Amino acid sequence: MTNVFERIGSRVLRGCSLLGKTGLFLLESVAQCFVRPYRPGKIIEQIHFVGVKSLFVIILTASFTGMVLAIQGFHTLQKFGAEGLLGSVVALSLIRELGPVLTALMVIGRAGSAMTAEIGILRIGGVIMALDSMAIEPRKFLVSPRLVGTVMAVPLLTAIFIVVGILGGGLVGVGLLGVNAGDYFGRMEQSVELADIAGGLWKSFAFAILIGWVCTWKGYNTQRGAQGVGTATTTAVVVSSVLVLVGDYILTSVLL
Amino acid sequence: MSATGPGRASGHLQTLPDPAADGPLAIRLVDVETALLGKQVLDGVTLDIPAGRITVIVGLSGAGKSVILRHMIGLTRPDRGQVLVNGADINLLSRKGLYALRNRFGVMFQTGALFDSMTVFDNVAFPLREKTDQGEAEIRGKVERLLALVGLPDVGEKFPDELSGGMVRRVALARAMVMDPEIIFFDEPTTGLDPIIRNSILKLVCDTWREHAFTMVMVSHDIPEVFHWCHHLVVVRAGKIAAAGPTASVLASEDPFVRQLLTGDFAGPIRLL
Description:
heterodimer; A: mainly alpha; 9 helices; B: alpha/beta; Rossmann fold; 2 domains; 6-stranded mixed β-sheet; 4-stranded antiparallel β-sheet; about 25% strand
């Protein structure tokens, strides 16, 4: 019996310790953003990597998400004779939920995994230790630009996802299913409020921090060679994806 | 100091002039104890590293040589004891203070630890670009001079994965010297290299010392080559210092462990099988 309590206690303590370490890692990495020398070039590089290079996959995902939403929404709304509300349904679904969540998941798969692998390879290659020994703060050099780049790129990608999704939905709803274009866009304007857009952007901002945090932490603490890089990358993708979905539930509860 | 052996005989590695043995200390470890992952890796290590001389740390794998080096650089903090660099305990320094101290260090790691995504030139220029306000022309001049010094004048535009193991180590040495350090640390700089390349790296270390008279601390398995030119020798055994002092006095040690390690005999207290 004592053993059971010991094991539970040990796990709780380890969990608390991990939480403390990851929290400190994030705080110190954020603090390093404000320490000279500033590295705008590296931040722009990361915005390009996370943002511009994810654009194609975001546009592709967004258009098909909008199209599917339009088909599903149209057939459901048709049962109630409310096809004219299709624009509102598509827009609100994308702005409040699907835009932020799917963008985050796409960024995790494309950029977050690469971030973890890249930092992980530097860790196992001894480069992080070399940076430290050269009196160059590794978190400032490797983590802070990625955090800032992710936080700046993800909300922009989310906005693009929403716009493209609405257009994709319009293409199917108006072009194929015969919904009036004025209804589609007009109802959308009536039903979407600033709070919906703000809520969606808050979510994307929070998800961006989560992605940057988990993916850089996992890469930064990679151990045990090439296999360790693989494990760290997989864990980073799984953990950040789950945290995005859990975070989405919590934020939705708070924002609604 | 011994003046015989393969290194000497080959004519590549020659005995270096020995500055005053009782000169100032660069680094002092006092009763350092460290446990890593529950294992005691350093157990009461007390050690002096003289300034302006080459100190080589030898010992069996896992004895704690690299851990000692990491303590000197401040990459690992001891559980007990002091690490004094120029009289200051580096474990009491703030992050800023520690980094200020490390600006006076150059470190060459076993694998080179170069950025794969950067060219050789950019790797060597990296500390200058990150930590100084020097202009690109000045940086170019310095990097080219160092690459020539390590015998690689024409590889600046290549990437590390296009170089041989020995060339990577040379580039790493150039990077370690680029900030004009007072102390250079080498963590097994020749491990895994063939004898010719290994000797060329060791010769480069000797030549660098001749030119700059840096304090150099090297963890090495290159026994007996290093005995021909290192000024100070440290033998580590299971987290303790088995012998330390001027090379000649350590070579004359009667300690059975030291004797067996230095001569490579099968018979003795070291049982590997």
